[in-house]
Amino acid sequence: MILPVVAYGDPVLKKDCEDFTAEELQNIQELVDNMYETMYNANGVGLAGPQIGIAKRIFVIDSVPMFDEGEESKGVKKVFINAEIIEEWGEEWGMEEGCLSIPGIRGEVFRPDNLKIRYLDEKGQEHIEEYDDMNARVIQHEYDHIEGILFTDLLSPLKKRMIKGKLANISKGKVPHEYKMRFPKA
């Protein structure tokens, strides 16, 4: 089922999310499936719990479309539950990022090149893995969501001032969008 993407300005996007309990994990597959369907419908490469109104530590990614033809195998399609970044290292590099909750706005964000993350999959199995380059970036962006951080929080002060009016319009529902969205109540 395609769920509405929560728009900028909704308090759930700024919450530090809670872990799933063992009991909640028993019935997680439908949520995971809905998150992937919602993400693909919006042409995204990642989607986190807060973006569908759930203040829980879950995100899905599919970075395959971010790789050039012939290099798609370098992409990652996974669900991360109760994730914790253990370590980040390497040179910080900038790239323009966008967000399904903030349509029409992009900005350069600097992130370290590598990370090590601990997480559960949809079957409740724990993994500790390392990622780099584009996969690390997608994971870091989605991980920020479950920590209550938006990519706009990481922009330069000048860029923040430049987009202030656009962000206000998004929070009022005054933004073109091509997928189902939920805007904050006035």
From TrEMBL:
Keywords: Hydrolase, Iron, Metal-binding, Protein biosynthesis. Binds 1 Fe(2+) ion. It catalyses: N-terminal N-formyl-L-methionyl-[peptide] + H2O = N-terminal L-methionyl-[peptide] + formate. It is an enzyme of class 3 (hydrolase). Fe cation binds at residues 99, 141, 145. Pfam families: Pep_deformylase. The keyword Iron applies. The active site is at 142. Gene3D superfamilies: Peptide deformylase (3.90.45.10). Its EC number is 3.5.1.88. Removes the formyl group from the N-terminal Met of newly synthesized proteins. Requires at least a dipeptide for an efficient rate of reaction. N-terminal L-methionine is a prerequisite for activity but the enzyme has broad specificity at other positions. This is Peptide deformylase.
